[in-house]
Design goal:
Chain lengths: 118, 174
């Protein structure tokens, strides 16, 4: 069972209320006081909201544009090219760092009469 | 507040018209200004993604706040999954005792009551719109908002000089 005083709350929300019920409820002084307090409560909240909205700097939403298909394809090709170029450059750089490949191998063997001098 | 550069006119207009209210709704619901700003942005990003398919079958404001409610639900779920559930905490704002009191009073409400109350009070939704958004009924919404008002009045308003008549809080939801 609902409380008939709900009409007071509904009234200040501009909701439809039954006039007969409202009249009956408002006959009671305590209910009239309750209606006034509901209005005060609204004032109180609005006062708080006003104070806050003075300091509110709400930023508009920002969404990063999603790259379109062809842009993504071009970006992929560019990245692939950069990767290949980078790889080739690295290869050249690496080859300068390596010792030259041997073209022939010379093996030295001790002669039969050789002695080890200390 | 600037519009959304490059955004469809609908989104820009909705942001201009409802952005501050959406922010306040999140601010009251989460007690976290940073989260409220992020969630507000998320609402309008979602709107911009679905603006093309939007058909005005309902009031724009109700549509925006239905999205806002979904964003809030997702946020709470994510927070729960991360074991850092966003609870309504009293905000430490020494220069804004008034604000902290209100936030604390809102935190003391039952979740359903707070949600219905904020959608009506901040969002400006009708009871029928709230009933649709929350998958409830108009009488239930009406009861929830009434209960929320009674509780907030107890916590926020000083008692009148001759005392305050006790108002039973209860009744069926549905």
């Amino acid at each position: 069972m609902s409380d008939e005083r709900e009409v007071l709350s509904a009234l200040i929300d501009r909701e439809p209320v039954a006039a007969d019920v409202l009249a009956r409820v408002l006959e009671q002084p305590a209910n009239r006081a309750l209606l006034v307090e509901f209005v005060r409560l609204r004032e109180r909240i609005q006062q708080d909201d006003r104070g806050e909205s003075r300091s509110l700097e709400l930023s508009p939403p920002i969404e990063r544009a999603r790259p379109r298909g062809w842009i993504r394809a071009v970006a992929a090709v560019v990245l692939l090219g950069l990767g290949l170029a980078g790889g080739a450059g690295l290869e050249r750089y690496a080859s300068r760092e390596r010792p030259p490949e041997p073209t022939r191998v010379v093996q030295l063997e001790p002669s039969p009469g050789a002695t080890l001098r200390r | 507040m600037d519009g959304i550069s490059g955004a469809p006119p609908l989104v820009a207009r909705l942001f201009e018209q409802h952005g501050p209210a959406v922010y306040r709704y999140f601010r009251r619901s989460t007690a976290d200004p940073g989260a409220a700003e992020d969630l507000s942005q998320e609402v309008f990003l979602r709107i911009s993604r679905h603006a093309g398919s939007y058909e005005p079958r309902e009031r724009e404001r109700a549509w925006v706040f239905r999205i806002a409610r979904n964003v809030l639900i997702d946020h709470k779920r994510a927070a729960t999954r991360g074991a850092t559930e966003s609870r309504l905490e009293p905000v430490a704002a020494p220069t804004q005792a008034l604000h902290a009191d209100l936030q604390q009073a809102l935190a003391g409400l039952a979740g359903d009551d707070r949600e219905a109350f904020l959608l009506a009070e901040i969002g400006g939704l009708t009871y029928a719109e709230i009933a649709v958004a929350t998958e409830s009924t108009v009488p239930a919404v009406r009861s929830r908002i009434y209960r929320a008002r009674l509780a907030l009045r107890e916590r926020l308003l000083p008692p009148p000089p001759l005392g305050r008549a006790a108002v039973p809080v209860g009744g069926d939801d549905e």
